[in-house]
Write a structure and sequence with these properties.
Length: 398
């Protein structure tokens, strides 16, 4: 049976991008077979390159978000640098940018301008708060948007709100930009026209806040912060085990509670006790419920506790740290790990979550060095050696 091509084979993406939101979006496109040309500053490139050096000397954010791309380093303060970007866009299907508010428009690289000049182009503007309104020009780093979107207010313990441990606002915007590009490409396939795509980090994360938002708007009160516990279900929390581990369990209905009472707590009478028999009763007696579960699991090792809960048909999970995720038996059993090349050598990376059986595997291309593809890309747009040499001497390219 003939293997299907990657769905974005033949699609070229040009991205003037930095940090996480746009780079993570375009990495998804690269994973589906698109050619992604990353335009970076000549003085250090995407500033995410300098966040840390944890990935064998490279920044972990950059390695995560930028595999499979070609890097060209240009000075966009020089009209000649912008001219190179325009030449690249002329041969592209998609353009993505997440520059500071107003910067793309000043360069003529905003979606509306580009789509007017190139009707088949899909052009994406990613911003913090959108192109208009009182917050349009406000700085929009991930944690700031988490605060503005209310995510921090529902995350943490009763006494302490906390931010998410991953850049949730960036990721939300990236995934809506990614899906917006795919939708616009489908529309182009039907109509022949691309068009602008707008995504803001606040809009994206506000959508992800749908459950607590509707709970507060229509129920009158926001859900309480409950740490790892669930605000309206009990027992639903992580409990310490005898070997220092923690096991999270979730009882979704009263039948499961009866099985937990009989097989784990070893007190079957709790299944019909009016203080515990219904979820409402258990939530009302949360401290007593948690104490019963905690005492039962506290005498077991984590593996033993998980095995018993699985046997009882009670949903459960090990509370793993990130190193344990890197060694997760399920990821290993499903062969989800690959190696990608980089300027510091091969690095482990996960296959993308989208799997397309019957087609080719995601290419998982190398993480580029700054300006690694500058010369090749300049030649591809028709520049002669003398022109390229002059741009280098003048510091327009690197």
């Amino acid at each position: 049976m003939e293997s299907l091509p990657l769905p974005l084979d033949g699609i070229t993406v040009v991205a003037v991008e930095q940090a996480v939101a746009a780079p993570f979006a375009t990495r998804q496109l690269a994973d589906l077979g698109a050619r992604v040309i990353k335009v970076e500053r000549i003085d250090g490139g995407d500033f995410a390159r300098g966040y840390d050096s944890a990935a064998g000397g490279m920044a972990s954010h950059f390695v995560w978000c930028n595999r499979g791309k070609e890097s060209i380093a240009l000075d966009l303060k020089d009209p000649r640098g912008v001219g190179v970007v325009r030449q690249l866009i002329a041969g592209a299907d998609v353009f993505v940018q997440n520059l500071a508010h107003g910067a793309a428009a000043r360069l003529g690289l905003d979606a509306a301008t580009l789509c007017a000049a190139h009707p088949r182009l899909v052009a994406v503007d990613i911003s913090g708060y959108g192109p208009s309104g009182p917050y349009a020009g406000k700085r929009a780093y991930d944690m700031l948007v988490q605060c503005e979107a209310g995510l921090v207010s529902v995350t943490g313990t009763p006494g302490q709100p906390v931010k998410a441990g991953v850049p949730a606002a960036d990721i939300a915007a990236a995934m809506y930009a990614f899906s917006g590009v795919l939708a616009a490409l489908v529309r182009r396939g039907v109509s022949g026209r691309g068009g602008p795509v707008e995504v803001s980090m606040l809009d994206a994360l506000a959508e992800w806040m749908g459950h607590p938002l509707h709970h507060a708007m229509h129920g009158g009160t926001p859900p309480a912060r409950t740490g790892l516990a669930h605000a309206i279900i009990a027992p639903y929390d992580a409990y310490p085990t005898a070997d220092g581990g923690r096991v999270l369990l979730s009882v979704q209905n009263d039948r499961e509670w009866r099985r937990l009472a009989e097989q784990i707590i070893r007190r079957p009478e709790l299944g019909t006790d009016p203080d515990f028999a219904t979820n409402a009763a258990r939530v009302g007696n949360r401290e007593r419920t948690d104490a019963l579960v905690g005492e039962a699991l506290g005498g077991l090792g984590a593996d033993e506790a998980v095995a018993l809960l699985e046997r009882a048909g009670v949903a459960c999970a090990r509370l793993r740290d990130v190193q344990q995720l890197a060694d997760h038996p399920q990821l290993t059993a499903r062969d989800r790990w690959r190696e990608v090349g980089s300027p510091v050598g091969p690095l482990r990376a996960l296959l993308p979550p989208i799997t397309l059986p019957g087609g080719g595997e995601a290419p998982m291309g190398d993480v580029p060095a700054l300006g690694e593809h500058t010369e090749a890309l300049l030649r591809a747009v028709g520049m002669a050696d003398a022109e390229i040499a002059a741009l280098r001497v003048d510091g327009v390219v690197a």
